[in-house]
Design brief:
- This protein is mainly α and 179 residues long.
- The chain has a three-stranded parallel beta sheet with strand order 4-3-5.
- It has nine helices and five strands; from the N terminus they run H-H-H-E-E-E-H-E-H-E-H-H-H-H.
- A hairpin with a 5-residue loop joins strand 1 and strand 2.
- It starts with a helix and ends with a helix.
- Helix 7 packs across helix 8.
């Protein structure tokens, strides 16, 4: 495992080198993987709860993005752990996502935490629209009202965490009361 200082130096050199985007992306991903290994090797240390000193250097211009360039995180950088939600913001010029595949996010968890990057899934809240914002479709509304208990039972049995969230927010009860 290389030292974090040398890895940051290598990443900085890649950032300054103006390489083809595919080469920059490949180098950045390799450095991110190595930095993750450094963090994992220190996870048993007493200082494991502290953020590493090099994390701020990474946040200030060494984050490879989906826009095929290095960015500084100015609260406009996210980790795209839900591609279907990230796609809604992909074309925004002032929003970027860390240039890693969603499947790689769990393998880079400590690095993401150390760099204080926010996940799309943690920043977006999904809820049913307010009554005034939707057109009522009588047939569909009737079917939902008739079957809401089946939906609730399914969620309870198969997706218990989602069920608890919906139940606590009274969203399941609203399904049965639809008019």
């Amino acid at each position: 495992v290389l030292s974090p200082g040398r890895l940051i130096q290598a990443l900085s050199m890649v950032s300054d080198a103006k390489l083809p985007p595919s080469d920059s992306e490949q180098a950045a991903r390799k450095v991110y993987t190595e930095l993750e290994l450094v963090l994992r090797s220190k996870s048993g240390d007493e200082s494991a709860g502290e953020l590493p000193s090099w994390a701020d250097q990474v946040r200030k211009g060494l984050l490879w993005t989906n826009k095929h360039e290095f960015w500084s995180d100015e609260d406009d950088m996210f980790v795209n752990d839900l591609p279907e939600l990230g796609a809604l913001f992909a074309d925004r010029p002032k929003v970027a996502f860390l240039g890693v595949e969603p499947s790689a996010v769990p393998r880079l968890e400590l690095l993401i935490r150390a760099c204080r990057l926010r996940r799309v899934s943690a920043c977006i809240q999904q809820r049913l629209p307010a009554q005034s914002q939707r057109a009522v479709h009588q047939l569909l509304t009737g079917r939902i009202r008739q079957r809401w208990l089946h939906v609730a039972r399914y969620l309870y049995a198969q997706e218990n965490t989602h069920y608890e969230k919906l139940a606590n927010a009274q969203e399941l009860r609203r399904l049965g009361e639809m008019t």
